[in-house]
EAL domain-containing protein
Amino acid sequence: MVYTTKQGIWRLLLLVLFLMGLCPTMAEGAAEAPQQNVLILHSYHKGFSWTDDQNNGIEERLKSSKIPPVIYTEYLDWKRYPSEENLQRFYELIKGKYAKLHIDAIITTDDRAFDFAAKNRKELLSDAPIIFSGINEIGYDQIKDQKNISGVIENIDPSETIRMALYINPSIRNVYLVYDNSESGLSTAQLVIKKLNSMNLGLKLHSMNQMSEEEINRTVLSLSSDSILLATTFYSDVTGKVTELDRFSSELSAISTVPLYYMYEYGLNHGAFGGNLLSGKLLGEKAANVALRVLGGENPDTIPVSFAGTSRNVFDYNQLEHFHIEVKDLPPGSEVINKPFSFYETYRGLVLILIAVFSVLIVFIAILLFHAGVVRRIRKQLMESNERFSLAAFGADAVIWDLDMTTMIYYFSDRWYELLGYEIGEIDEHYIGWSNIIHPDDLEQEERQRKDHLSGKTVYYYSEYRIRAKSGEYKWFQARGKVQRNEEGGYVRFAGSMTDITDRKGYESKLQMSYQELESTYEELTALQDELLEQYNKVVENQTLLQASEEKYRVLAFNDELSGLPNRLSLTEELKSFIEENESGQAALFFMDIDNFKYINDTMGHTFGDLLLKQAGERLLALSAGNSRRYRFGGDEFVILLKDTEQPEQTVFYAEALIQSFKEPFQLGDSTVHVSISVGIAQYPCDGRTAEALLKNADIAMYRAKQAGKGTYMLYGQNMQQYFDERVIIEKHLREAIDNNELSLQYQPKVTLPNGELWGFEALIRWNSPVLGFVSPLSFIGIAEDCRLIIPIGEWVLRKACLFLAGLHRQGLGPYHISVNISVIQLLMDDFAETVLKILRETGLNPRYLELEITESIIMESFEEISIKLEYLKQQGIGIALDDFGTGYSSLSYLKQLPITTLKIDKSFIDGLPGEGSSMPLAGSIVAIGHDMGLIVTAEGVETKEQLEFLRRVNCDKVQGYYISRPIAEGQVQAWTRQYARQMINVEKC
């Protein structure tokens, strides 16, 4: 036993020592873990939907962890400021803020933030591991050093979206891709195009990144039903115009004739039809999960890069309604947002439960009513039984009572004493004595009923009352009796029986309570029925409101809100209906466009433009005829359908009346505006038997009317279609001319008089298409202006010419000048002056060596707006030449106000020199006028020695033309200048 005790003590000591050894370890484990720091670097700016979604996903996941890290967030703002200066400023910012802070992990969103972190983390950010989000496959493959890096790839795969679109509309054959030319836009588009081509579905892809916002809008207005739009990212169009995604997407969807599918979920609620949408928040959450694993001690190199689980199949109910697509027609498993509230669908389970409960309650009420009937029958039977018992009890050994009417002393049978617990003699049997044990509430009733019977009012005495037993409790008794009278009518005896009805009264009380509960239940059911009826009435009322709303939307869908006229959709349906019902009839379709409407909009504002459109609609309504219908087709375009045109002159008379009606000026507020219209006419059935053909041909005729000088009408002819087709072909190939290096410049020399020194060159554009061959500028410049391709082409010409001249100057040639022709479309751009100065800075050309040539008609068309810009450029040292002078209609008063430095005499005044015609004195007069106004005068089109001599005599300052030299290719200019320097052609030698 002693040995066992010692052994136990030693074991206890060892246990204590073991626990003491564990104490430091436990203390260390209990110590608080060191705080960790996470830096989130965003490529774009706060407020950009994609960036905000990723940031929300990252922060919510990090903050929900057991030990949330300290979160620091920075924005590179690369989408708005993609420059090296911005990178340098951001570098200095990070260096200053985090120099003394240890960073445990870096989370980057999108490519530019990742590139910055990968380049500078060793120097600035504690060489922390990088977890990326928002980098696509191309971006990830370009990462050279992938050590200490993991993250979530932005899996850009349009395959599921295309499959969903084909599920909804199997006839799709064209996919129009909407994206911009930013780094992310081009990278994303490259992946999308690659994926779509790999699907081998025979789809034709159309990229829209080389279009301006206006061109994109015009394109989507006329897309056929076998097309869809697929948007990736969009921040600015080809002109550099920045457009907020929300506005651009919403406006594009509103005018598009086909659904706008998206690759990213931030397009939802902003016009996106739907698709397999990448979720920025899911990307952020998955990236944060990887970051938490890294913070927990895992090596980033062992964590695989994630691809899946970052998208959702979702559609916008409003867009489904817009394109008349039912929810049931969507691919299985699709999510629908913005679905309107439906009481039945939302509370379907509750409604069914209420109906079931109501049905059960009806059955329950029926059972209770049946039970109440049974109770009433039982009660009736009980009363009948009591009556029989009372009659049988007379003279029986029961609770029998007998009142001596002379002494008023009662006799009670022994049963009465047994029931109440009293002893015989213990109760005063005199009426006044024993009546004291009757319940006070029942005493008055009993006395009345007794007196009624004794007075002959009732055949029998009957009363129910409570009597207090010896125990103190009250028992219910039913007393029945009958008075016996003598022949004289006096009282002889009053006797009867008593029955203990305490149990029956309890049952009746319970039955009464059940009946009251039944009434309460019935009242509740009635209230529930009223409530259900009220809810049903609300459902009916909502259905009525819904039908009224649908009717309102139908009216809005078929009518133009601004002008009050039926819209394009109404026109299409009515035109199709007319053709179907009038196969042998005749009609004329007038396609009307307001001339120079864009200029009115730009100079007077959109409010004036809308007012003009509204008054134009009213004027068309005033020009009503019983067989005509008027529509607003879109923008400043209107369509009139004239039916039953049996005589050809009807169409002509109506067209002339239409042209004449718009010659009356419009009063827009305090301004009086004169406008004209151009009208194209297609006749049914000779110019087309379908709505599409008639509209297309009328549009072609209208365009020809504009080319004919505006303010007139033109009937469609087959030759117009050929011209239009040729124009479409030219425009198609012209859109690829810059990218394919098909454009070039030639330079025609200009020399000064009288010494013949080389002043410089005029830059002339040339287009040699591999498909069309050499295309004259007279053929494609007008088309480029109409489709606004003249803006990128004109900017290319200006930059190319300035680079060419700056190169000559650097080689010691010159100093020469360069003249560049400018289109009115360029001049009307808000940033035209800034663009010119920017090109001069980029090319290093001094502004005084640049001369811009503007045609006289251009300046007269937009005098005030253009004059301000030209005056500003003139102040910067740039020369302004008025080209083709004398062919326009400007007065000398206007000429004095123009900010020009040079007058160019049109070739038509030079061709007749030095003959005896009117050109000779007129050319000299132009030179004199120019000199009187302090301007330099240049003559173009000089082809003979005699013309040159005449111009020298009238003191013309500069000349150009074939006599000096034809336009020279860029590679031959230097050789020509050396040869000309040797020859030194001057006026005196000529």
Notes: The first strand starts at residue 37 and ends at 42. Confidence is low (pLDDT under 50) at residues 1-6, 22-31, 393-397, 985-990. Residues 502-558 form the longest helix (57 residues). DSSP finds 34 helices and 34 strands in the chain.
